[in-house]
Amino acid sequence: MDKLLFGISGLPIYSGIKNINYASGIRYAKSIGLDAMELLFVRNVNVTDKNKDIILKTSLENDFYMSAHGSHYINLNADETEKQKQSMERIIKAMEGLSKVNGRSLVFHPGFYLKDSKAEAYNTIKENLLKLPYKEVDYRLETTGKGTQFGTLEELISLCKEVKSCKLCIDFSHIHARGNGCLKYYDDFAKTLEYVLNELGRPALDDLHIHMGGINYNEKGEKHHLPLSESDFNFVECLKAIKDFDVKGCIILEGPLVEKDALLLKNTYKRL
Question: N- or C-end of the chain: fewer Cβ atoms within 10 A?
Fold first, then answer.
């Protein structure tokens, strides 16, 4: 990508538009200065043959970037093979829905360790990822916010090296929460980006998908999202590091204030 985009997770909430949908939400988000939207497929794939054409037309008219967040019911390391297959089916269905509107990145959490060792979970998840069909939609593996969830930065970078259809989604807030508040200063964010650069090369930073937002956590990790102003997540220093590393791609704001905090991120970045 040739620049850094800023967007929201799901539909905007302050538009005043009655019965807002993806098409009207895209138009509104663009009108207030945002560039992207992550469609929420967390419960069901809500791009269908009935609405796909208007979503695609509206996104093209507004030069608007779309990704999607896959189901929360994915565990590629489930104990039962049938549940692994169901997880694969959910990923494929989401990929097909996103491809209908020319979306590029499908974000999801790969799974849980359960009773397996980290190495065992890694190998099972890798085997399942290798089975996924590739149809010009990148599978974005998201760093996770709890210690019970598979998805450290190191694990996901290793998978991205081994599975060509997979790319990285860095959720800085999840990393912060999983590490019980580990990202405090500029150097913490810079070291994270330097690690990505060293392991995956410059192309990874030229097309990076990022999640960011306020977050509440405890020693077990993520609890829930917060407004940026109510969290100790240091988004200003995070954005400084992103700018200094000349990262391109897309930043999606996750949090209850949706477009307000997404604009806060974009405007802060522009002032740095």
Answer: C
Question: Are the beta carbons of 176 and 188 closer than 8 angstroms?
Answer: no
Its sign, for the CA torsion 34, 174, 14, 26, is positive
What SS3 state is found at 265?
helix
What is the pLDDT of the chain when averaged over all its residues?
A: 98
| CA–CA dist 85, 87 (Å, integer) | 5
Model pTM above 0.85: yes
Token pair recorded at residue 188: 């913490």
Domain residue ranges of the chain, discontinuous segments joined by +: 4-271
195, 153 Cβ separation under 8 angstroms: yes
Q: Which helix (H) or strand (E) holds 61?
A: helix 52-61
Cα dihedral sign for 256, 269, 215, 91?
Answer: positive
How far apart (Å, rounded) are the C-alpha atoms in residues 164 and 154?
16
Report the distance separating Cα 49 and Cα 19, nearest Å. Answer: 19
**Arithmetic mean of pLDDT, 152-161:** 98
Architecture of domain 4-271: Alpha-Beta Barrel (3.20)
